[in-house]
Amino acid sequence: MATLLRTVKDVLRPLPGLRIAYHNCIVFADYLKYTFTIDDDCRIGDKWDFTAPAELFRHRVAIDAVKKIRGDEWGDVLEVGCESGVFTQQLAPIVRSLTACDVSASSCQTASESCAKFLNVEVLNLNILKQDINKQFDLVFLMGVFCYFKGNARKLRVAAKLTNALRHGGLLLVQEMRLPPDIENSSWVRWFGEGGLEIRNFFNRTPGLKVTHEQLDRDYITVLYEKSNDAPAPKRWKDFVPGFLKTIYRNCQLARALSNDLDLSNTRSARDWLQAFKIIARVQRRSLIGVHGLKQLFDLILALDRAAIAGDIVECGVYRGGSASVMGSLFTASPCDRHLWLFDSFQGLPKPSAADGPSAAALENKLPSDEHLVRQLLLDCGTPPEKFHIYAGWFSDTLAKAPIEQIALLHIDADWYDSIKQCLEHFYDMVVSGGVIVLDDYTDWPGCKTALDEFAVSRGLQFHLEGGGKAPYFFRKQ
Predict the structure, then answer these.
(1) pLDDT by residue (tens digit) across 6-30?
(2) H helices then E strands: how many in the chain?
């Protein structure tokens, strides 16, 4: 077969038009092969020698690209498609922690054995098309993997998961092979999104990502993207859809997201679900914690009310008031006499410390909000004005000013190590037995986990974390 192909190439070499047609047919045949033979389990038979000099050089290009941006501070890293762990072994000595994943169980086993000497490496058997990435990272490597996701729906699904897995200010490195030059810009290639250049163009259109480095080599392309709220969102067909249709679509998506919590056989449960749906639909665009996090806060407040656990509600890190309004909306029907205490600088996030990781610096002074808009949203959602109190300013200046005696729920959405440590040290003793402490950023920023771990050690405490997944972690005070 190989001899026949060489003969065909020799015949076509003097005929440019036929040669280009031949190359197009070969690439298109590969596209059809992977489109119709690879299912969502991504079972592929390709075998690569990642120890070959060309592959090792390509790995070095990726590492050098990151070093130009981040220096030696890489933080927590995710490698998608670790295969036998050749690149994993190159990354392990550089990074603080490394999660290497692959869809193949046998590849994961090989990678685990080859990386056993590295204590900072975790190898996971993960199919990112079907499974969620439940951690946050400062850097994600996507090298020679994205080309196997055929079809726009699969690409969008994977790109969204990878973007969500990045911390704000985090980096996504995409490295893909280019097509032969004579077909790289053909119309069918652009239509089907084949080749490194088209994959680059796809990520250039992904909202929230902006290019920070791009390198074009003869055989592959290397691009670094930063996750940023400042990244311009490209115009898409959705931008031209009327507002009321967008609202209907968002509400349908919300109902779908919360459908697992709906129990039509229980009248009270169905009534609670409907109440939660109505308030979350109203405030979800004013919060960063997601609909599952908002529903979790709603359920926790209801459970505290029904257990008659006394105490106020405290939120550290209010932003635009979405989660505060969900909790405050329950006050009118609450059997407990509660107050809602809200603390935020309304000037954006303070300066992070080294414990918060290398991506944190990109968010200093970002995410400012408006105290007056928060106050208005609370009123619009039915929170009695005499029941909520807003303290604007840095935690070091405001936490001690509030005359709080007992706390039933403490919601800490403060991101950074120093801020979370201040909140725990000041408020923990006020939380009543059976009360709840919610740590919104436990898996998002390393400083949050460090702050809780150090606090537990200093007090000789042990916490049983609940929640997680698509909602924040929380624990109950014994």
Answers:
(1) 665 565 555 555 556 666 666 666 6
(2) 16, 14
